[in-house]
Structures are given as structure tokens and as C-alpha cells.
């Protein structure tokens, strides 16, 4: 008997089983604009040209980084799917776009249909919560490439907005105010540093309860990356909003500076909010310098709006109406 694909480590039967589970989950996210189901070589989404007469397609792609390592350690796999979708939604909505369609990639040593379905169930939940359709994806079984029990995860999102509604920071001026919204945790950045401090230096048990956190480090590190969709929708067309920054790798300064034209800078009031406990503990355990903390982590601020000074109260009140504890965290300077 000759060698088969399964002998080499690729189980096409498991792949087919995973695809069937994924298809059912994806259908739960469909709306009237999704033209075909899962299974073809591409996904199809019809843009509503009455709603968007001058449509600009907005796209982004990302992963969840080494936060996956925490999911492996805890054997919890649905939350990283939510992280992935929410991260991508936030990225494209900084431009003012509406999220429309999402696709994913999962690569693993072996495809376990139930585990794949658990990952995708998290994506499907987040897609439903964000009004975004999961219209396709790819699962790849790659023997000899991944460690046993581990996988990689990435996602791509498509959004749309009218050309005249684009938010790109071009109206930002000196004197504008930076309003920050709370993060739910580390979100999806800084995990390599956090893991090094906790597990390499201090050999901490990821599942052990920590009194200071009132939960285990595993639970704290797997807090779901927050979606800011409702907050952005509440203020994106407000005349005072000149820019929106999603605070990911690079921190508050690194991400907000991406909006600024030459001749402008920002001044952050690092005492303008209470830094969450998990960041304080990580800094203490690792003896990490302030500058390094500010580059590696969001420090409790997950999204920032740059707003004209005279419009700050109106924007803050609109955010408060959405249940957001908006804080003034800095200013734009020359």
C-alpha cells in the first residue's frame, strides 16, 4: 500500500469536518448583502450604493499575537476569536467606516474540528455583535510547522464609508484635546513582555488565583479586546472629532502620532487616568521603566479621540451616554 496524504500528517477528513462546523457558524452572521454561503473560492458581499453613493472600501488585516500562548496554556479558545474580530473592527472604524465582512485564517499542526469550531464560534459571536458578516476563511493543516496543540490565527476585514466622511486626522490642529476611552485589559499587545515577566522570570502558575487581581493571571490576560463600535458610531460625524486612534502596539503616543501632520505633536497627561492593576503589577514584577511600559502596553486606554477644544464637552457627554468613562488624557501641541 502506498503513502497517503494522511500518512504525511494531513487529514483531509478532519478538514472537511471542520469546514462543515465553520459553515454553520458563519451562516449565523449573514445579512441580506451576503450573496453566497461558505465553500466557494471567495466570499461575496454587495455594497449598498444607496447608503454609500460614493463608496470607499476600507480594509485591514491583523492577528492577536502571542496572546495565543495564554489561550493554549488555559485551553480556552473562543475568546481569541472575539479578540481578532474586535481588533480589526476598531482599526477600520478609526476612519469612520462601517464594518461589513470578515475572513479568517487558522493554521495548525493538526486540525481538530471541535477546537476549530470553538475558535470560530468566538469570531461568529463578535461578528454578530459588530454587525459584520463572516463570509469566508482558510484552515491549513501544516505538519512539522506548528507545535502540538498550537495554532496561528489571523483575520481580514472589509468596511465602507462615503468618501466625504473619511476621518484621517487632516483637520487636527494645535490645541485639540485627546479624549481616551478605557481598555478592557491588555487587549492584544504587549504579551511577549508580560509572558516573559510572569512565566520566564517569576515562574507564575497561569491558573493560580491572584488576590491583587481578584482572578488568575490567565483570566486577566484573556480579557477580551474591547470593541469600540458603539462609541465610535456615537461621535464619528460630530464636527469636533478630527481623528480617532486605536491604541495597539506602540502605545498611546505611538499610535496617536500616526494621525499628526508635520509640525504637530502630542502631550499626554500620564496622571489623567488610573492605570489598571495588572499593568502596575507587571511593572513592579519586571522592574520595567515607564517609557518601556508606555511603548509596550495601552496602560488602560484602548481608543483615543482627537477633538476640537470647544467641542470637548459635547463629545464627552455623547460618549458618557454610551456608558463610556471618557477621560481627557492630553493635548495636541506645535
List the helices and strands and how they pair.
Layout: H1 12-27, E1 55-63, H2 67-74, H3 79-93, E2 98-108, H4 113-130, E3 133-141, E4 151-162, E5 177-182, H5 191-201, E6 209-210, E7 215-216, H6 217-221, H7 229-235, E8 241-246, H8 251-256, E9 265-268, H9 277-286, H10 290-296, E10 301-307, H11 312-321, E11 327-333
Parallel strand pairs: 2-3
Antiparallel strand pairs: 1-4, 2-4, 5-10, 5-11, 6-7, 8-10, 9-11
Helix pairs in contact: 1-4, 3-4
| Largest sheet data | 5 strands, antiparallel
CATH topology grouping of the largest domain: Phosphoribosyl-aminoimidazole Synthetase, Chain A, domain 2
DSSP strand tally: 11
Q: What's the Cα radius of gyration? A: 21 Å
The level of helicity is 25-40%
Number of helices: 11
The CATH top-level class label of the largest domain: Alpha Beta
Overview of this structure, please?
The chain has about 325 residues and is α+β, with helices and mostly antiparallel strands. It has 2 domains: about 10-165, 2-Layer Sandwich (60s Ribosomal Protein L30, Chain: A), CATH 3.30.1330; about 175-334, Phosphoribosyl-aminoimidazole Synthetase, Chain A, domain 2. The chain is built from 11 helices and 11 strands. It has helices at about 10-25, 65-75, 80-95, 115-130, 190-200, 215-220, 230-235, 250-255, 275-285, 290-295, 310-320; strands spanning about 55-65, 100-110, 135-140, 150-160, 175-180, 210, 215, 240-245, 265-270, 300-305, 325-334. The strands form 3 sheets. The protein has a 5-stranded antiparallel β-sheet. The protein has a 4-stranded mixed β-sheet with strand order 1-4-2-3, with helices on one face. Strand 2 (about 100-110), helix 4 (about 115-130) and strand 3 form a beta-alpha-beta unit. Helix 1 (about 10-25) runs parallel beside helix 4 (about 115-130) and helix 3 packs parallel to helix 4. The chain is flat, with a radius of gyration of 21 Å. It starts with 11 loop residues before the first helix and ends with a strand.
Amino acid at each position: 500500500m502506498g503513502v497517503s496524504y494522511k500518512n504525511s500528517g494531513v487529514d483531509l477528513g478532519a478538514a472537511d469536518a471542520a469546514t462543515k462546523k465553520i459553515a454553520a457558524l458563519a451562516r449565523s452572521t449573514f445579512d441580506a448583502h451576503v450573496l453566497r454561503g461558505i465553500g466557494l473560492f471567495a466570499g461575496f458581499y454587495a455594497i449598498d450604493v444607496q447608503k454609500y453613493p460614493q463608496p470607499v472600501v476600507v480594509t485591514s488585516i491583523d492577528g492577536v499575537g502571542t496572546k495565543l500562548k495564554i489561550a493554549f496554556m488555559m485551553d480556552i479558545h473562543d475568546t481569541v476569536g472575539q479578540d481578532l474580530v474586535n481588533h480589526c473592527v476598531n482599526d477600520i472604524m478609526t476612519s469612520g467606516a462601517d464594518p461589513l465582512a470578515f475572513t479568517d485564517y487558522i493554521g495548525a499542526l493538526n486540525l481538530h474540528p471541535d477546537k476549530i469550531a470553538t475558535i470560530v464560534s468566538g469570531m461568529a459571536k463578535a461578528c454578530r455583535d459588530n454587525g459584520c458578516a463572516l463570509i469566508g476563511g482558510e484552515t491549513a493543516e501544516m505538519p512539522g510547522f506548528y507545535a502540538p496543540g498550537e495554532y496561528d490565527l489571523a483575520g481580514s476585514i472589509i468596511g465602507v464609508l462615503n468618501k466625504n466622511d473619511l476621518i484621517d486626522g487632516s483637520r487636527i490642529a494645535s490645541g485639540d484635546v485627546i479624549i481616551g476611552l478605557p481598555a478592557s485589559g491588555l487587549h492584544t499587545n504587549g504579551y511577549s513582555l508580560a509572558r516573559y515577566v510572569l512565566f520566564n522570570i517569576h515562574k507564575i502558575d497561569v491558573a493560580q488565583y491572584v488576590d491583587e487581581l481578584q482572578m488568575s493571571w490567565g483570566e486577566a490576560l484573556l480579557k477580551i479586546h474591547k470593541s469600540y463600535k458603539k462609541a465610535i458610531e456615537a461621535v464619528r460625524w460630530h464636527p469636533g472629532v478630527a481623528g480617532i486612534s486605536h491604541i495597539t502596539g506602540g502605545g498611546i503616543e505611538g499610535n496617536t502620532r500616526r494621525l499628526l501632520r508635520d509640525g504637530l505633536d502630542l502631550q499626554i497627561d500620564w496622571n489623567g487616568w488610573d492605570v489598571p492593576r495588572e499593568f502596575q503589577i507587571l511593572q513592579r514584577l519586571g522592574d520595567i521603566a515607564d517609557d518601556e511600559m508606555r511603548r509596550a502596553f495601552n496602560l488602560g486606554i484602548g481608543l483615543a479621540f482627537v477633538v476640537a477644544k470647544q467641542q470637548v464637552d459635547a463629545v464627552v457627554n455623547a460618549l458618557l451616554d454610551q456608558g463610556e468613562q471618557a477621560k481627557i488624557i492630553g493635548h495636541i501641541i506645535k
